[in-house]
Amino acid sequence: MQGALHELFLDELRDLYSAEQQLTKALPKMAKAASHPQLVQAFESHLKETEGHVKRLEDAFTALGEKPDGEKCEAMEGLIKEGSALIDRKGDLPDAVLDAGLIAAAQKVEHYEIASYGTVITWSTLMNHDEVTELLTETIAEEEAADDKLTMLAENGINESAMAGSV
Amino acid sequence: MQGALHELFLDELRDLYSAEQQLTKALPKMAKAASHPQLVQAFESHLKETEGHVKRLEDAFTALGEKPDGEKCEAMEGLIKEGSALIDRKGDLPDAVLDAGLIAAAQKVEHYEIASYGTVITWSTLMNHDEVTELLTETIAEEEAADDKLTMLAENGINESAMAGSV
User: Fold this and answer.
1) To bridge B147 with a disulfide, which of A68, B47, B67, B110 should be the other Cys (CB 3.0-4.6 Å)?
2) How many interchain CB pairs under 8 A, A with B?
3) Dihedral sign of CA atoms B31, B26, B108, A23 in order
4) Among residues 85-104 of chain A, which lie with CB inside 8 Å of chain B?
5) What share of chain B is helix, strand, coil (3-state, %, to 5)?
6) CB-based contact (8 Å) between B130 and chain A?
């Protein structure tokens, strides 16, 4: 018999599954709204990774003998709404300022995911779901790398351009 | 004249102001739902800190000659809804499992705030708002410490109890 922590673990995985799926729809819009070529590329390559995260979660559910369907992740819905509100300002904001805002929005998303994956990895390890732990650990490493990449892009040019272009 | 990046900076600060205010209402409910005495205490002491974060944001707006009113932060609304859904399960879930879930929910909130404060600190530094940078830096240090405290509580007993009590 599986216990209550296992149920909570499945709930968190379903929440992440919804979050990652929502993100696969949001990232192409972010890539389209971005101007800096490296930022466009970062969003596009993170889209490919995110599709892989969806697949890994499906594999995790298979390994657990469960189905991934669940409720919509409301936190990710809110995060994406904030990004959409920013995208709607394309044309009104200088390109580099919009880019700086898109980075901020994307980093909130990455931090949300890092916190969630951190929790499920801890629980998965505790419950000895080794295969699932491995899948989730591969994903969190990509989320952390994506976050670092965004910081690097912000610090190596986009923020300065946003300053210069915004006065 | 202030530029577009400055406007975006103010938007982010207003978003954080809404987020922190929402959190002052959610934390007492989380403290009430928690069972482990140190977790109850962690939520209670973070409530006091969060009230301080609201005050610091008000001081930041004063320093910038602006008002803090703004739209409701939808991301924090979604994060809090997830926590509330968990609190509603009090009584159905073993105490330690609910505690583990509350820690997970709270860490998502902390990560959201850390990402947001990280962005506004970068922008504030870039625009030489030294007084504001200092206020925001004090807050992010407390958010990071709160996140670490939650990890420590999870790892030093709550997760193990959740395992033991959940089968």
Assistant:
1) B110
2) 134
3) positive
4) 93-94, 97, 100-101, 103-104
5) 85, 0, 15
6) no
Using CA atoms, how far apart are residues B26 and B21, in angstroms rounded to an integer?
9
Is the minimum CB–CB distance between A127 and chain B shorter than 8 Å?
yes
Contact A78 B75 (CB under 8 A): yes
How would you class A89 by CB atoms within 10 Å of its CB: exposed for 0-12, middle for 13-18, buried for 19 or more? middle
Query: pLDDT truncated to tens, each residue of chain A (167 aa)?
Result: 358 999 999 999 999 999 999 999 999 999 999 999 999 999 999 999 999 999 999 999 999 999 988 788 989 999 999 999 999 999 899 999 999 999 999 999 999 999 999 999 999 999 999 999 999 999 999 999 999 999 999 988 898 889 887 65
φ, ψ (nearest 5 deg) of residue B134:
-65, -45
Q: Which of B3, B78, B93 sits opposite A166 (nearest CB)?
A: B3
> Any CB–CB contact under 8 A between A140 and chain B?
no
A63 touches B: beta carbon within 8 Å? no
Residue type, A112: Y
